From TrEMBL:
Keyword Glycoprotein set for record: no
Domain Carboxymuconolactone decarboxylase-like as annotated: residue spans: 59-118
PANTHER family in UniProt: 4-CARBOXYMUCONOLACTONE DECARBOXYLASE FAMILY PROTEIN, CARBOXYMUCONOLACTONE DECARBOXYLASE-LIKE DOMAIN-CONTAINING PROTEIN
Pfam family, one: CMD
UniProt entry keywords in alphabetical sequence: Membrane, Transmembrane, Transmembrane helix
Name of this protein: Carboxymuconolactone decarboxylase family protein
Lineage, broadest ranks: Bacteria, Pseudomonadati, Bacteroidota, Chitinophagia, Chitinophagales
Signal peptide: none
Residue intervals passing through the bilayer: 29-47
GO terms for MF: peroxiredoxin activity
Length: 271
């Protein structure tokens, strides 16, 4: 048994070049351990395949930072936000990506929360610069070259997010207050979602995080959790999302978010 343990160790630790052991144990036994070593050596590649944006089931550090920044900024806890902004930069988010998170959330939490978040971020960057830390600015939003109206562009983006084509007469709030429906299409889904500094999935993380932080907006949270699934976010990631919310802003908010997540996943499994 001791000899076999040594062989396994050598096989795993020497993936680049596996040599036959000096200890005699028979060629058949050695081949068995070679097979085991091959299986173990490809395991990391199998795990990496799961990290594909369409398939991964675990939140990355960047995604967790986006969730935490958006949730804490939505709450208006600026002292905690300062720590989360530093952590986000260390996790690999660029300056422009974090700015975009803070800009995006104004559509759900209002200008005051967004502006205070941006002011806090400015202070964080100044402090880091004074310490000799030069953070990566990152890419800016690409120019929009479409000749379609903002309403049509926003409508197309919304249909892509929901996976449901819009047809028929307006109902609900869109019929009651047509102007808000225009604002949603032209501004939220065209002006904001069209900016490619963040992906659709990253924008949805911002959205569901802010909605979880402000509370009392379960219908909107439910809609955006469904969109999360449509843009490639996995059910396991939504489950983990509620744990990040608990760590970031509290048990009550996490409990409410978890309830809606469970409803969404249950309904999804029935289809």
């Amino acid at each position: 048994m001791e000899i076999r343990c040594i062989i396994v160790y050598q096989a795993i630790d020497s993936r680049r070049q596996i040599k036959p052991p000096k200890t005699f144990c028979g060629m058949k036994t050695f081949k068995l351990f070679i097979g085991l070593a091959i299986v173990l050596s490809i395991a990391p590649f199998a795990l990496n395949a799961q990290s594909d944006p369409e398939k991964r089931v675990i939140l990355t550090l960047r995604e967790q930072s986006i969730i935490r920044i958006a949730a804490v900024a939505g709450k208006g806890d600026l002292s905690k936000l300062k720590a989360e902004l530093n952590a986000g930069l260390e996790a690999g988010l660029t300056v422009n990506q974090i700015k975009e998170v803070l800009v995006h959330l104004y559509a759900y939490a209002g200008f005051p929360r967004s502006l205070r978040g941006l002011q806090t971020f400015m202070a964080v960057l100044d402090e880091r610069k004074a310490k000799g830390i030069n953070d990566i600015m990152g890419a800016k939003a690409s120019p929009i070259r479409s000749e379609h109206s903002k309403y049509e562009r926003g409508k197309a983006i919304l249909e892509k997010l929901t996976g449901v084509p819009e047809a028929g007469p307006k109902t609900g709030y869109a019929a009651f207050a047509p102007e808000i429906e225009v604002f949603l299409k032209e501004h939220l889904f065209a002006d904001i979602f069209e900016r490619d500094v963040l992906t659709y999935a990253e924008r949805e993380w911002v959205t569901v995080s802010v909605l979880s932080s402000i509370g009392g907006v379960e219908p909107m949270l439910r809609s955006h959790l469904n969109i999360c699934l449509n843009v490639g976010i996995a059910p396991d990631q939504l489950q983990q999302f509620t744990e990040v919310i608990k760590q970031a802003i509290g048990r009550k908010e996490a409990r409410n978010a978890k309830k809606v997540v469970s409803e969404v996943l249950k309904n999804k499994s029935k289809k």
